[in-house]
Specification:
With 303 residues, the protein is an alpha/beta fold. It is built from 9 helices and 12 strands. It has 3 domains: 82 residues, Winged helix-like DNA-binding domain superfamily/Winged helix DNA-binding domain (Arc Repressor Mutant, subunit A), CATH 1.10.10.10; 103 residues, D-Maltodextrin-Binding Protein, domain 2, CATH 3.40.190.10; 104 residues, D-Maltodextrin-Binding Protein, domain 2. The longest helix has 28 residues.
Length: 303
């Protein structure tokens, strides 16, 4: 009897992820007939049916789902072995899969990437954006190597490193009663309508925690999907919001129709850090990446 083949497990895991033979074949860089034939051979080898084949949909059997989950674990371990061997040869080469929050990535990466390319020329960065919960799930499953989030991590089981503190700024419409000031305090927001991101963004929870100290109330008929939507709604006079400092620097410093004010001490902050699996084989690359990030996020630091 032939040995169980890793490529067949990859085919099964791809089918479990896509539930589509054509998409799974494309993900594995093989033809659909090849993938289908290999999965039939795998079923024959294991002696159980793995896939229910219907004209317009694909379902995994109970055995297929359980085996696909174990296959994903085996694939992750296999990939880690290959990466571990490569890292022993050159720990700062190869790919590093990094995810950042949507409220961090667009504002941090443009200032960071040019320096990273010079400092770590052999490191290929694969960059993603996820909210905290799906990001941690992908870290846990091995799909990502590193996550940049607001600390503390809401789930145990990860290594973490604090990188920088980022103050919140107050954004108001240009004709707002506070627009002529250089700074404000939370008590100035009494009875204001606060614009926030939708559920799932940790920045929403952080803003609510900050504003719990005042009588500001959330605008209930609006939830933004991005900081840029918040910015436009403030400029339109719909309310006020809190923005992280990096989102108000550089190209984002002069948004039309809006004014940005510092908040008086104690300045509300969010703590930005890195999280990764304790078993990761990419610790040298993670340390190098995080060192560069911490050094070049200066405009987001609290002073």
């Amino acid at each position: 009897m032939a040995d169980l083949k890793l490529k067949d497990l990859r085919y099964l895991a791809a089918l479990a992820a896509t539930r589509h033979f054509g998409q799974a074949a494309a993900a594995c860089f093989v033809s659909q007939p090849t993938l289908s034939a290999q999965l039939r051979k795998l079923e024959q080898y294991l002696g159980v049916q793995l896939v229910e084949r219907h004209p317009r949909r694909v379902l995994l059997t109970e055995a297929g789902a359980a085996i696909a989950e174990r296959a994903r674990q085996i694939i992750t371990t296999s990939d880690e072995i290959v990466r571990l061997a490569r890292d022993w040869r050159d720990p700062l080469a190869g790919s590093l899969r990094v995810a950042l929050l949507p409220t961090i990535g667009p504002y941090l990466l443009p200032r960071l990437l040019p320096t990273l390319r010079k400092a770590l020329p052999r490191l290929e960065l694969l960059l993603f954006e996820y909210q905290t919960t799906p990001m941690l799930a992908r870290l846990h499953s091995g799909e990502l190597d590193l996550g940049i989030i607001a600390l503390p991590a809401p789930e145990p089981g990860f290594e973490s490193l604090a990188l920088y503190d980022e103050p919140f700024l107050l954004a108001v419409p240009e004709r707002h009663r506070l627009a002529g000031r250089r700074q404000a305090q939370l008590s100035d927001l009494e009875d204001e309508a606060l614009l926030l991101l939708e559920d799932g963004h940790c920045l929403r929870d952080q803003a609510l925690a900050v504003c719990a100290r005042s009588r500001v109330h959330e605008k209930q008929d609006f939830r933004a999907t991005s900081l840029e939507t918040l910015r436009q709604m403030v400029a339109a006079g719909a309310g006020v919001t809190l923005l992280p400092a990096l989102a108000c620097r550089g190209a984002y410093s002069g948004a039309a129709g809006m004014r940005v004010l510092n908040l008086v001490k104690p300045v509300p902050l969010r703590h930005i850090g890195a999280v990764w699996r304790p078993s990761s084989t990419r610790t040298a690359a993670i340390a190098a990446f995080c060192g560069q990030l911490a050094r070049h996020a200066g405009s987001g630091r609290s002073t």
